[in-house]
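Quick log. Single chain, no ligands specified.
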Amino acid sequence: MLLCSLTMKNQVIFVIFFLAFFQALVATRFKSPLLPRNTYPNAIKVNNIYYVVAFRHQDHLEIYSSTDLNSLKSIGTVFPQNETHPWAWQFQSAEIHKVDGSFYVYYEANKKTRIGETCIGVATSSTPGGPYKDLGQPLLEKSDYAYSCPTLARAGTP
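-> predicted structure:
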């Protein structure tokens, strides 16, 4: 009855609000059966081994390996925990990609010098398990926008 009394524009706004609220509620209650303490996992398969990068804590991105994705084993982090990152803190979502023989982890993080400024960074390695070297500065940064869940797209590929 409530929806019938609203204008079409307000009905759309109400439905969008309801769906966003429901999605947030489900996300807070969902626990990954493979990585229960990690969020935003992303995987790549190299020579029949899966490598998964996932956000574990504010200070690092965990790397896992598996031959079947049912038994993931931690093999380290993208950035060593005892080293200070050159520009970022509070790492969030990440993606791992193989491009022209090298491996890239694109990640979202907050810039140390501007609290609340979300940026996209990238680290490279010759192997999917690392060690990774950060670019040393944000790949993309702009305080007017929020970046989330970086995705690599190459021109001319689907």
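The longest strand covers residues 102-111.
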